[in-house]
Write a structure and sequence with these properties.
By secondary structure, this protein is an alpha/beta fold. The chain contains 10 helices and 20 strands. The chain has 2 domains: about 150 residues, Carbamoyl-phosphate synthase small subunit, N-terminal domain (Glucose Oxidase, domain 1, 3-Layer(bba) Sandwich); about 230 residues, 3-Layer(aba) Sandwich (Rossmann fold), CATH 3.40.50.880.
Length: about 375
Amino acid sequence: MTYPKAALVLEDGSIYEGVGFGYSGVAVGEVVFNTGMTGYQEVLTDPSYAGQIVVMTYPLIGNYGINPDDYESARIQVAGFVVRELCEEPSNFRVQKALHEFLAEHRIPGIAEIDTRGLVRKLRIYGVMMGALGIEKTGEELFDLLKRAPRYDEIDFVEQVSTRQFHLWDNGLKPLEGFLPKGDQLRVIAADLGTKFNILRSLHRRGCEVIVAPVKASAQDILAWEPDGILFSNGPGDPALLRYAIRTARELFGKVPLFGICLGHQILGWALGGRTFKLKFGHRGSNHPVKDIRTGRVYITTQNHGYAVDEKTLEGTGAIVTHINLNDFTVEGLAHPELNILSVQYHPEASPGPWDNGYIFDGFVQLMRKHRGCALDEAKEDES
């Protein structure tokens, strides 16, 4: 197959020329890199990557194609995709289509045959940058477009990726038209900041009934569903822009157990009185070592974030740091025992990556069971 010429331009004026694949168009976004050797389908469909042009550091991408099982949302979420070598003829027993077909179907441009090692080295040295990727476009045209585009941290991407109505998770999202009576299962409301499907699967596998809520649902709207616990999910962008989510989280303090993952962890950090800061080049990949301070055990984790909670700003909040990153010692987990809050910066649901961290979900389930038992005991006392 013959591919057209393409270019990737960075805000510092660097131009990387290669060949285009996927959709013949233009994308503008923050250029970031992922160090995973596998899992490109999960990366492409992870809503946390909205507004970003993703560079894969592993040199050969597309060799096992696209399959029906590894979606983390209903569509591709990245703005653009960058690889060293594109595999045109995938081989896997689950394959349904090739990577270049998948990108074309979702109108996402990609570029191949560029020096991804040199590009990633630049991003590590100077930090992530805005970029423009275009097929059949000159570097000058792309740079002009880039200069006129808004910056990544000026846009609320969560509004773009969050659901618009309440859904029930049952091996897929099913719209709810009215109130769903509560049964014996633990009910979790997932505040959708851009949730990955495998987070919902992980809770469902543990016997939870999972209802996905729009990110702008009020605390009152959420509590009306009589949840046993509330999840603040992963998602894209700068948490400082999400004042509405921070306010909702704060209004839910002390009502039921709260659980945060990735962006949800940062939202809970803000709601507790902490602050976040932008990392130089972020943590994105499936091989990041994290230490659970409570046990001393080290876990290899999947990560995808460009911001982190500033530990110094948590002083006096009652929050306890439970996990740290062993590469840069940033905060990877929080707990607030009095408010029944726990959160992690990394992705315990993996997908892609190691399955070592399911104990985080188990801890949330135990917290909900304990809280539900206490609530039932209080109800019996009131009746007597």
